[in-house]
Amino acid sequence: MTEQLWINYKERNIKEAKDELIIHYVALVKIIAGRLYTSYNAHVEFDDLLGYGIIGLIDAIEKFDHKKQIKFETYANIRIRGAIIDQIRHMDWIPRSTRQKYKRVEEAISRVQKVYGNDMTDEHIAKELGVSMEEYGKLIGEVTTYSVVSLEERLEDNSNFDIASDSVDFQPEDNYTDREVKRILAETIDKLPEKEKKVMQLYYYSELTYKEIAEILGISESRVSQIHTKAIAKLKISLSSLY
């Protein structure tokens, strides 16, 4: 079905075919917008994310080369999500104080990791930050949303890599960097402690919520948040060599 639509639009310039492609792939936009809506903790309206995503979808349809051996869903996923994230960044809804707190946490994790490696604990990080475990828990709760956002932004700035996909859409000028990003992230995730690796898999690949992950692992949502935030910081630290 879609193959003929691509031919009609790309080779015969039939506008109706483009409209049908947009309608056909709106479901993909809804999935991506819904996923990001969860990540951004309802700081933005779902309909707004959907609108931003459709802009990305239209751009993807216009630029997609249907003759290449690349799945459109993979190509569009990257561009739809990129369009949504780009618009949200322009909104600048995250307080500067939250960004600063997350930077403190990330820097503390970097320092502690150099000493303890993957054996570092939350107690080590809290001590490095000079806070109690209770204060540490509250701090992680405040920055957890931005930790997800910051990783998305870092990947969006640097490459066409999609953390939840085994495929990468390569452009010649991006080929080396994209492969490096994928290699570094894969190696870092592989070296994570088992629980951190499990949380990353369930969140990004199975696309579960913190509540669902907590139920599977038999821990609290706040604990999932702590594990996830720590794992994300490690991923960002591992990518620092590319900047």
- Give the overall average pLDDT: 82
**Structural classification:** mainly alpha
Please outline the major beta sheet. Answer: none
Per CATH, the class of the largest domain reads Mainly Alpha
The total count of strands amounts to 0
Instruction: Please state roughly what percent of the residues sit in beta strands, choosing from under 5%, 5-15%, 15-25%, 25-35%, 35-45% or over 45%.
Output: under 5%
Low-confidence stretches: 160-174
Distance between the termini: 43 Å
Query: Compute the gyration radius: what is it?
Result: 20 Å
Percent in helix: over 70%
CATH superfamily of the largest domain: Winged helix-like DNA-binding domain superfamily/Winged helix DNA-binding domain
For the record, the CATH architecture of the largest domain stands as Orthogonal Bundle
Tell the overall outline.
elongated
Helix/strand order: HHHHHHHHHHH
Write down the oligomeric state.
single chain
How many helices? The count is 11
Might you state the CATH topology name of the largest domain?
Answer: Arc Repressor Mutant, subunit A
